[in-house]
Amino acid sequence: MDMNPLLSSEHALLKALTYVGAHIDEDLPGKAWVGHTPFAYWLISTLKPGLLVELGTHGGGSYFSFCQSVIDNELDTKTYAVDTWEGEDHAGSYTQSIFENVSRFNQKHFATFSTLIKMKFSEALRKFDENSIDLLHIDGFHSYEAVSGDFNTWYPKLSTKAVVLFHDTHEFQPKFGVHRFWAEIKNKYPEQCFEFEHSHGLGVCFPKSLNAAINFQNKLGANFKNIFYLFSVVGDDLYYKLHGKYSLQKNYELDMKDLIDCLKHIKNNNPDLAKDLKQFL
After folding, report:
1. Considering its fold, how many domains does the chain have in total?
2. Which alpha helices (H) appear in 20-140, and where do they start and end?
3. Considering the domain boundaries, does residue 269 fall inside one?
4. What are phi and psi of 117, to 5 degrees?
5. What is the three-class DSSP state of 55?
6. Does any domain span residue 49?
7. What dihedral do alpha carbons 100, 82, 164, 58 form, nearest 10°?
8. Element (DSSP H or E) covering residue 224
9. Over its length of 281 residues, how does the chain's per-residue pLDDT go in tens digits?
10. Could you list the residue range(s) of the whole structural domain that residue 237 is in?
């Protein structure tokens, strides 16, 4: 008998909320992204992209979270990480050991579906057909010119249902311009954009389809805003554990009773995973 779609959805959500991105360590750095790993894990399990491309992988903090979800959810997704692994002004220069560690980890765990492409983003364009990419994660050089250029040059490669992720939308250091481009994207696609502000910010956009954005919200149901907030709470807790501080000041705009009721409902329907969320109640 097939599992109830609602319970199946809630099970996937609870599984993602307990995902901690354990691969992130000194050999595979990715502390700036750690707060988004539960959401990334859930996003893959829910949208089930056929083709995923990441621009800017560094130590694999985000990329291997995507890949782990592909494995755990038994998906047919093909994933590609594009990076020179040489570094740049914002991330600093990389030693060769970063790529070696990423390549070794990828080969050991994800080689059947994951490919590392060691080249510039513009050079990798020719490797992908137009209208083929279902999930594009942009996390390269963070100037306004760079991120806008990445989005515009890769836009033709996106499928009609594609989601694009932008990291550092809530980072306002000098020379960081993702927040500026994100503001333009939100203005252009006001009903197709969503954002997390913790862990330096993550923008989520469905630029080619309003229906895809609506379907995304429907995956989280009537508690969409509460669950989005829950990903922020859980994600910032992970950020704290690695950084010793929260990425955002704690705020309590959400009625905590609503949040707790939402969690209890999910846990009651998934007793096999409920113990893993004990820390949040």
Report:
1. 1
2. 37-47, 63-72, 96-109, 121-124
3. no
4. -115, 105
5. strand
6. yes
7. 30
8. helix 224-243
9. 333 444 457 778 888 888 887 787 766 666 788 899 999 999 999 999 999 999 999 889 899 999 999 999 999 999 999 999 986 655 555 678 889 999 999 999 999 999 999 999 999 999 999 999 999 999 998 899 999 999 999 999 999 999 999 999 999 888 899 999 999 999 999 999 999 999 899 999 999 999 999 999 988 877 788 888 889 888 888 888 877 887 776 554 445 555 566 666 666 665 655 555 555 54
10. 20-255
Which amino acid is located at 74 in the chain? E
Q: Is residue 267 part of a domain?
A: no
Contact between residue 117 and residue 80 where contact means Cβ atoms under 8 Å apart? yes
pTM, to two decimals:
0.86
Look up residue 274 and give its amino acid.
A
Residues in the chain, total? 281
Tokens coding 193:
């954009």
Q: Supply 81's token pair.
A: 């990480």
Cα separation of the two ends of the chain: 32
